[in-house]
Design goal:
The complex is a heterodimer of chains A (403) and B (294). By secondary structure, chain A is of the alpha/beta class. Chain A is built from 14 helices and 14 strands. Chain A has a five-stranded parallel sheet with strand order 2-1-3-4-5, sandwiched between helices. A four-stranded parallel sheet of chain A has the order 7-6-8-9, with helices on both faces. The chains are: A alpha/beta (403), B mainly alpha (294).
Chain lengths: 403, 294
């Protein structure tokens, strides 16, 4: 009789303890909100592929870690507009108990949602957006900028092109925050490496006809025309430059290009161009294995944004488990404490400004005859080590960085 | 030699490019003007039909090996048939109602068609090569003009003038104009007005399809190519005068040139200049430059 009582008491205590442990995660569900471009110019490089990548991360995490909490993934289209994305984030945080918002493909949406996340004390993991403002003047302690930024792009591509002898530059810039940021970072890299910038022309976003701007760039006489734009703006600029005979007399530098852009333009038009990426599916066995799983679901190879999103989601979920809590401050502390080690990043670390630093890769697009199988597009010309790839903390404008 | 600090050579080449873009505006706004003038329908699905034209050309080449030249012949009638199906099954119920209903229906259709293509083909656009015969450039002295762009100007001017001639100068055109002016009376003379209306809508839409085929080698087939252009094209139609055939042709070309010049002097404003002109024109002439007030 006594034994049974003791056993009962122990069982109750254990149950209570387990209950207490579970109570650390609010309502025992971790909700991930993928806020991305589902219908616009960037829906190929993020969009449904980002949701696929997130689901793969959740699937793998469940299989590896056998978590005691449930995980839900919700997604929405931010239409590349700041107001729409901040409204959606508010709704998710307030009503739907979403713990973390991810992806955020344009700078405007990223900056808007970071602010809401800070106000509501939730987390934002940014994979799609590019501007260095995210980890500089607009930084906060609940945001991680995961995949790449304009500094890393400029530092990779612009530096490589200047070193190859492309000393004089003219920029074709998308007329909004991202384009300006990319132009500024690239100009600095060009000048720092002994090149000079002859001028720039700003085009409306999104544009269709770039011939006028290209002719301006042509008449500038610059050796290199830097394309500080993205998506269909970049692909159309490249196509039309070839049409007007601007290339190959002057060369183009695509400062932000994704593998989907190369796929869309074809190797004939893009051959030998340099570009900087955080991820290439065909880099090693690990990246190939994951990319194949992604391809089976999406019928396209993953972009760095999608691969980065997998990595971010996985790291977040591991941190939730390690901290045994979904409290943002505790999760952020756990995320910053553990290095990121997966197919995307090796020994990646999250700095106090919210920047994940990891290796970047300088690619050169293959010639058509060098491509042996579908999506065989890049030569990896250089691995840019994490320590050099991103803006050094000493140059940071983020108030969180102690100097 | 320089004008306002811009070399004449640069100015000339931008004017030329303006003319090229203007010819796209002209052919698209012409289709809209025909449809509005004859049917009183504000056809917001026009951009989607233009996009569908480019995609049909791409599909023809990719799936069935149909060359650019055959596409140029086959795609416009195919797009026209789609238009006729839309007119027969949906639009004709709206003729008695206010313009707004047609606008809303076609706007909805445009979103659905665009969404469908985005779902099927993604947002990056699909490559379409310039046909071999039109590859390369012509040296105009002040610039190298791609042969293909010159061809586009030629074809669209021909299509525009041909349309204008048929509607304004032939017997068929006279019937058409009569049918819009007074459908009942025209029908009383034994002319099949519903048939004419159907064919007119089909024709207007086919012009959009033609523009789509012309655009495919320049811009690639991209699901959002129509929505990027349609608002500007509507502004062109409004400036030219809703329903005025010659008006839409001339304003299309003119605005293309003005836009080109804006790109020379202050490129940031090039996407807004058309709308600034629209506001100015509407203040002075509410019916548009070539429109007649009713």
């Amino acid at each position: 009789m006594k034994k049974t009582r003791i056993a009962l008491a122990v069982a109750t205590a254990l149950g209570l303890a387990a209950g207490l442990a579970q109570a650390q995660i609010s309502d025992n569900v971790v909700r991930i909100g993928v806020l991305t471009d589902m219908s616009g110019a960037y829906s190929d490089l993020a969009g449904t592929g980002s949701v696929v990548a997130t689901n793969l991360a959740v699937e793998d995490f469940k299989a590896q870690a056998k978590p005691s909490f449930a995980i839900e993934v919700v997604s929405a289209d931010h239409q590349n507009k700041g107001d729409i994305s901040s409204n959606k984030a508010r709704e998710w945080f307030d009503r739907d108990k979403v713990d973390v918002v991810t992806d955020l493909v344009t700078t405007s949406t990223a900056l808007a949602v970071m602010k809401v996340a800070k106000e509501k004390n939730r987390i934002a993991l940014i994979s799609g957006a590019a501007s260095t403002r995210i980890t500089n003047e607009d930084c906060n302690d609940v945001t991680v900028h995961w995949t790449y930024d304009t500094y890393a792009l400029a530092n990779g591509t612009a530096k490589a092109v200047v070193k190859q002898g492309g000393k004089s530059w003219f920029f074709l810039t998308a007329d909004y925050a991202f384009g300006h940021s990319l132009e500024k970072d690239s100009s600095e890299v060009v000048i720092a490496n002994g090149g000079k910038v002859l001028g720039a022309v700003r085009h409306p976003f999104p544009g269709t006809d770039f011939s006028s701007f290209l002719l301006k760039a042509q008449s500038s006489g610059a050796q290199v025309i830097g394309l500080a734009n993205a998506g269909t703006d970049t692909t159309n600029s490249i196509k039309q430059a070839a049409e007007f005979g601007i290339t190959p007399k002057q060369s183009l530098a695509g400062l932000l290009m994704f593998i989907t852009d190369i796929h869309s333009l074809g190797l004939k038009t893009t051959q030998s161009m340099y570009l900087t990426e955080a991820f290439y599916w065909d880099r090693n066995d690990e990246t190939r294995a994951w990319s194949k799983r992604f391809f089976d679901k999406q019928k396209k190879m993953p972009t760095m944004v999608q691969a980065g999103l997998y990595s971010a989601t996985m790291h977040y979920l591991k941190a939730v488990k390690a901290a045994n809590s979904d409290d943002p401050q505790k999760v952020m502390a756990a995320m910053k404490k553990t290095p990121v080690n997966d197919f995307f990043a090796k020994n990646g670390t999250i700095r106090e400004d919210g920047r994940l630093v990891h290796d970047m890769y300088l690619m050169q697009v293959k010639k058509p005859e060098e491509s042996k199988y579908p999506w065989d597009y890049y030569h990896i010309r250089q691995t840019i080590p994490a320590a050099e790839a991103f803006q050094p903390l000493s140059a940071s404008k983020c108030p969180l960085v102690k100097k | 030699m320089e004008i306002f600090g811009v070399p004449v050579q640069a100015l000339m080449s931008q004017l030329m490019l303006g003319l090229v873009n203007g010819s796209f505006y002209a052919i698209l706004s012409l289709g809209l003007a025909v449809i509005f003038g004859m049917l009183n329908i504000i056809n917001f699905a026009h951009g989607a039909m233009y996009m569908a034209g480019a995609f049909l050309a791409w599909m023809g080449l990719t799936y069935w090996g149909i060359s650019y030249w055959w596409s140029l012949l086959l795609v416009p009638p195919a797009v026209g048939l789609v238009g006729i199906a839309i007119e027969r099954t949906m639009l004709r119920w709206l003729y008695q109602l206010d313009h707004l209903y047609g606008l809303l229906l076609t706007f909805g259709l445009a979103l659905m068609i665009e969404g469908l293509f985005l779902y099927l083909y993604g947002s990056s656009g699909l490559p379409y090569e310039v046909p071999d015969m039109l590859g390369g450039t012509i040296n105009l002295g002040f610039m190298f003009l791609p042969k293909y762009r010159a061809w586009v100007v030629g074809v669209s001017l021909l299509a525009c003038l041909g349309t204008w001639y048929v509607i304004e100068k032939t017997r068929l055109g006279a019937y058409l104009r009569a049918a819009t002016e007074n459908p009942r009376l025209t029908q009383a003379f034994g002319i099949n007005v519903p048939l004419m209306v159907m064919l007119t809508y089909g024709f207007g839409v086919a012009l959009a399809g033609l523009a789509g085929v012309l655009a495919a080698p320049i811009y690639q087939a991209d699901p959002q190519m129509g929505s990027k252009l349609i608002i500007v094209v509507f502004a062109v139609v409004v400036i030219g005068g809703m329903g005025s055939i010659m008006g839409s042709i001339l304003t299309g070309l003119g605005l293309g040139v003005i836009e080109g010049l804006t790109k020379v002097f202050y490129s940031e404003a090039s996407s807004t200049v058309v709308f600034v002109i629209m506001v100015c024109v509407l203040m002075v002439r509410p019916a548009g430059l070539f429109g007649r007030e009713k």
